[in-house]
């Protein structure tokens, strides 16, 4: 026999294992997931490349002329070829403003979810692994947090901060405050999910083997148990990004979000609402459509991930 016959087959690379995974197989067969992911990538690229692809800089006062205010989109009469989607009440190009606004909305949504995930995973891991009084205390804390709606907490905190420190300081710290408030308000979703997964995993043989080998609790929690709880975390994160963007848009609409000088999609909708009945409908409607499509594709991706990563729901 030749040595080639006896030689063991080479182990597949990580990329090969990823291509052969159930996730990729399901994605390639689900047209709705592919379309949703493509649209989300386009949003992400548009947000990241906003300074390069935007026709104008909405943050540059020298590039804004109040005489250009409320110019309709290109397909209407009295349009201006310089502004494909028209202008807002301040004379800013709507296309440029929405590109920058999408950037801010995505930044707040993603960063807020990262904060939620960090707090929730830490608390859920600790509660589920140690149990007892620690578990009871942390879960009662989560129950108290869940008894308050995110919007109520955010409105109270942001309104008090704005009243105490002034609108000027609030405008400078608006992004940080929105990320902090939305992130802290939603951590129980992660904590409860992670705790349930840890309770199911911590009595399995691989955890007992790690304890017998003398590994510390922190290593067992983060290196052994946590990787087996990532599937539900990924599903929650996809949906929570959409929820965080909606929360930011709602707060901006109420005047407690991003200032007019740094528009997000929510503040754009808010700033144009008073003009919607005077004929300048595009100032509110076009950013509203952009926001609805973004949230819709995020929710569709979340539903697809939930179905694929849940063996009871996955149908192949």
TrEMBL record:
Entry-linked Pfam families: BPD_transp_1, OppC_N
Keyword field contains Transcription regulation: no
Organism: Motiliproteus coralliicola
Keyword hit for Transmembrane helix: yes
Entry's localization field: Cell membrane
Keywords of this entry: Cell membrane, Membrane, Transmembrane, Transmembrane helix, Transport
Bilayer topology: Multi-pass membrane protein
Protein family according to the UniProt entry: Belongs to the binding-protein-dependent transport system permease family.
Domain of life, per lineage: Bacteria
One Gene Ontology term from the biological process aspect of the record: transmembrane transport
GO CC term (a single one): plasma membrane
Transmembrane segments: 32-54, 104-132, 144-163, 169-187, 225-246, 281-302
Domain ABC transmembrane type-1: start-end pairs: 102-302
Protein name stated in the entry: ABC transporter permease
